[in-house]
Design a protein that fits this description.
single chain, 246 residues, alpha/beta, TIM Barrel, 9-stranded mixed β-sheet, 9 helices, 9 strands, 32% helix, binds SN-glycerol-3-phosphate, binds magnesium ion, GP_PDE_dom, Glycerophosphodiester phosphodiesterase
């Protein structure tokens, strides 16, 4: 039997070809046929949710310093595209709200919460999702499992995913050990084996490994029957999926 088509989830947008976590990267990923977008969020000094991987601006903008110490206006004055290629000069660090304006609700947004130490970002995120009617069509993930558990307790309609890099003995048992419903597992792809995938899928869990890019790795994961793959190259995965299901 032909396995289900895995979801093509663009990592920080089409990160392999455009400046990560910018509207340009998300636009490119959408044009390449992704069905999901993974992005990372932080809270600014004035409580806006911005999309950026690092907690500082140094690597991906021409600015510097910690996001948590700067206002949205200060952060959006920096260029977030020129470091990648001249054609992307003028890109800025987007707010999550600006991403919602771009990405249709038919595309799953996987919001990865970074640095949830203060506990403030969870409330802001839930408020925004409710205001924008996005509660039911996003998946919230984090390496901080207490954070996503808190989020699920605060808004039970949300889907939550467990990000992990450890080679867990029994990922399904770990997920089932939560006192709230876990929607998906997001393992580092090198750790995954076919048995883990089969058991998780049989138990109704989605399995979204990160971040696989080579044809060999993408094909191997598809062979295992994963529910989706987080990749820097959605176009490459699209070709493989199409060839496999033609
Ligand atoms: O959500 C998958 C992946 O993005 C986790 O690692 O460091 O790329 O955010 P990182
Ligand atoms: Mg991420």
């Amino acid at each position: 039997m032909m396995p289900n088509k895995p979801l093509i989830i663009a990592h920080r947008g089409a990160k392999g070809m455009a400046p990560e976590n910018t509207l340009a990267a998300f636009r490119l990923a959408l044009s390449q046929g992704c069905q999901g977008i993974e992005l990372d969020i932080h809270l600014t000094a004035d409580d806006h949710i911005v999309v950026c991987h690092d907690s500082t601006l140094d690597r991906t903008t021409n600015g510097s310093g910690a996001i948590v110490n700067q206002t949205l206006m200060e952060i959006q004055a920096y260029d977030a595209g020129g470091w990648c290629a001249d054609e992307y000069k003028g890109e800025i660090v987007p707010t999550l709200d600006e991403v919602f304006e771009l990405v249709p609700q038919t595309v799953m947004i996987n919001i990865e919460v970074k640095n949830a130490y203060s506990g403030r970002i969870e409330c802001k995120l839930i408020d925004l999702l409710r205001q924008r009617g996005r509660v039911e069509d996003v998946v919230i993930s984090s390496f901080d499992h207490k954070c996503i558990r808190r989020i699920k307790q605060m808004e039970p309609r949300l889907k939550i995913g467990l990000l992990y890099q450890a080679n867990l003995l029994d990922p399904v048992a770990y997920a089932r050990g939560f006192d709230v419903e876990v929607y998906s597992l997001h393992p580092q792809f090198q750790m995954l084996d076919a048995e883990d995938v089969q058991q998780a899928v049989a138990q109704g869990l989605r399995v979204y490994p990160f971040t696989a890019n080579s044809e060999k790795d993408l094909s191997r994961l598809m062979e295992m029957g994963v529910s989706g793959i987080i990749t820097d190259f959605p176009c490459r995965m699209k070709e493989l999926v199409d060839a496999r299901h033609s």
